[in-house]
Amino acid sequence: MKISVIGCGYLGAVHAATLASMGHSVVGIDVDHAKVEQLARGAAPFHEPGLDELLQDGSATGRLRFSTDIADAACAQMHFLCVGTPQDKASDAADLSYLVSATRALLPHLAAGAVVVGKSTVPVGTVDMLRGVLGRRPDVLLGWNPEFLRQGTAVKDSLVPDRLVYGVDGGKAAAFNRSTGAPVGVAAALDAVYEPLLRAGIPRQVCSCATAELIKSASNAYLATKISFINAVSELCDASGADVAELSEAMGLDPRIGNRYLHAGLGFGGGCLPKDIRSFRAQATSHGVDAVADWMQLVDSVNLGQRQRTVDLAADLCGGTVAGRTITVLGASFKPDTDDIRDSPALDVADRLAAAGAHVTVTDPKAVNNAWRRYPRLRFEANATRALEEAELVLLLTEWDEYRRLSPAVAGSLVRRRVLLDARNALDAAAWQAEGWVVRGLGTSAAGGSFYPTDAPVPASA
Ligand SMILES: NC(=O)c1ccc[n+]([C@@H]2O[C@H](COP(=O)([O-])OP(=O)(O)OC[C@H]3O[C@@H](n4cnc5c(N)ncnc54)[C@H](O)[C@@H]3O)[C@@H](O)[C@H]2O)c1
């Protein structure tokens, strides 16, 4: 099938490359010239494992190309909207202006009977609003197919998704021919697109557009809830001397609970969960559902609270204040296996430490280039060994495998003081303690050992 993908960021670039790998002829459209130029060369404009290979395969087969000219979408019968829906600058709501302008730009290029399907994460009611934008084209079909891929595993998630959700006009009842049971309209078009996935047994759920919009919002809200729940409990663990790692391991063995997203630490960031729970809150408020709005407010504030909690713990470990201390932060990206620094908890904490007078060096395997211009108070060092030299306190803030594998003996030979705050509870505290490190985590004070001695002097060089 001839397909266009409008918006080739973290979602769209992966979607376009995945569709080409399924045998479709795909054109990816983006307004960002540099991004398009890079994608056209078969190079991902961001770090995403496996994407370069998929892009190169797509261009080698001739099935995948990229353009900045929306007119190049005219050849397609199916169009996926994948542009950003960031948080509005003045409120918690999602900013839908990119979606509206992309749809307006596409409008004159839509063939008769074309199908337009959104994948961006949007508030409930967005499809109705976009139908207004497409108003003069009643022949064009509109649906929603929310995306669940995760950065860092996006290629795998797209090639083998957990499920496909189709939001169609009139819901399930309207999606199938009454006598034959065969899918019609948007559902039939999406079945044709995803035929290899359906053949492989990936489940698909057909529902109304409003339900599809809310499935994505509610899924992210639930994941965020689970993370903030265990983080709130980890504070109780710290206050009471319990150990959150042991607690969550035992809780997770209950199949009704499960251990995914039940790992206490610095909390979530990135370009999706934070803005999505705020948008969900705004949606609930506008529909008068205060319980959901209040819930999301709490989840958000618990999550953001982990950042100051980490800064406060760092100050404790430095004897009351970080001012004048030399601190090394391991990790800058908002999570491992990506170079995305949007709302990165690691950089937020590092910047707060620097604002409090610490000399902060941040290292990261992939994200240093994205981060250094935006954080002038921080020093960046791509090489972890050099970054650790002379540190009085080491903070693990993004749990890259490279940091999980750090040798406590080697790291200990580089730093000035062996003090570690593992804000992701990712390292083997016992192994680090065995090498003479004072180790603290979030909610693991029972296992973490004693505080750093409060009388440690600020070095003269500070
Ligand atoms: N990043 C993820 O892991 C992920 C996962 C699931 C869903 N989503 C959702 O997907 C959407 C996109 O997210 P993202 O992370 O890819 O954002 P992004 O900022 O990386 O990409 C958006 C792209 O859209 C382009 N764009 C903006 N206006 C355009 C226009 N008029 N025409 C063509 N291109 C245009 C931008 O230049 C940018 O490249 C959001 O709604 C997000 O919530 C993202």
Walk me through what this model shows.
Substrate binds at residues 216, 261-265, 269, 335. This is UDP-glucose 6-dehydrogenase. Pathway: Nucleotide-sugar biosynthesis; UDP-alpha-D-glucuronate biosynthesis; UDP-alpha-D-glucuronate from UDP-alpha-D-glucose: step 1/1. With 462 residues, the chain is of the alpha/beta class. The protein has three domains: 2-202, Rossmann fold; 216-304, Orthogonal Bundle (N-(1-d-carboxylethyl)-l-norvaline Dehydrogenase, domain 2), CATH 1.10.1040; 306-448, 3-Layer(aba) Sandwich (Rossmann fold), CATH 3.40.50.720. It has helices spanning 12-21, 33-40, 51-61, 97-106, 126-133, 154-159, 171-175, 185-193, 195-199, 209-240, 244-252, 273-286, 290-317, 345-355, 368-371, 384-388, 401-404, 408-414, 429-434, 445-448; strands at 2-6, 25-29, 64-67, 78-81, 115-118, 141-144, 164-168, 204-208, 326-330, 359-363, 379-380, 393-396, 419-422, 438-441. The strands form three sheets. Strands 3-2-1-4-5-6 form a six-stranded parallel β-sheet, with helices on both faces. Strands 11-10-9-12-13-14 form a six-stranded parallel β-sheet. Strands 7-8 form a two-stranded parallel sheet. The protein is globular. Mean pLDDT is 95; it is low at 448-455. The protein binds nicotinamide-adenine-dinucleotide. Nicotinamide-adenine-dinucleotide is lined by residues 6-12, 29-32, 35, 82-85, 98, 101-102, 105, 120-121, 147, 149-151, 271-272.
Largest beta sheet: what is the strand line-up?
Answer: 3-2-1-4-5-6
Main CATH class of the largest domain: Alpha Beta
> Could you list the spans in which at least 5 consecutive residues all have pLDDT below 50?
448-455
Give the number of helices.
20
CATH topology of the largest domain: Rossmann fold
Assign an overall shape.
globular
Q: What value does the average pLDDT take?
A: 95
Q: What is the total tally of β strands?
A: 14
CATH architecture of the largest domain: 3-Layer(aba) Sandwich
Helix/strand structural class: alpha/beta
Ligand names = nicotinamide-adenine-dinucleotide
**What fraction strand?**
5-15%
> How far is the first residue's CA from the last residue's CA?
63 Å
Summarize the amount of helix as a percent range. 40-55%
Computed over alpha carbons, the radius of gyration is: 24 Å
Q: What's the CATH H-level superfamily name of the largest domain?
A: NAD(P)-binding Rossmann-like Domain
Family: Belongs to the UDP-glucose/GDP-mannose dehydrogenase family.
EC number: 1.1.1.22
Active site: 272 (nucleophile)
Pathway: Nucleotide-sugar biosynthesis; UDP-alpha-D-glucuronate biosynthesis; UDP-alpha-D-glucuronate from UDP-alpha-D-glucose: step 1/1
